[in-house]
Write a structure and sequence with these properties.
mainly alpha, signal
């Protein structure tokens, strides 16, 4: 009885994180309308700024 109770407790402890953090669903099977509805929550796309240029000092760095 104690072994079974330990097994059930361990099974519940290991299953709890799997139910607390469900996997994200795929967008592959959605229609165009469903995809547009899902993407509307992200807001407007803005281009990232260009990367910084090279450093002015080209000597040895420690």
């Amino acid at each position: 009885m104690v072994g079974f109770l330990s097994f059930v407790t361990l099974a519940i402890a290991l299953a709890a994180p799997a139910t607390a953090f469900p996997a994200h669903g795929s967008l592959a099977g959605l229609s165009r309308q469903e995809l547009d509805d899902a993407m509307s929550g992200f807001g407007e796309y803005k281009r990232p700024p260009p990367p910084p240029g090279p450093l002015e000092y080209g000597g040895v760095k420690l």
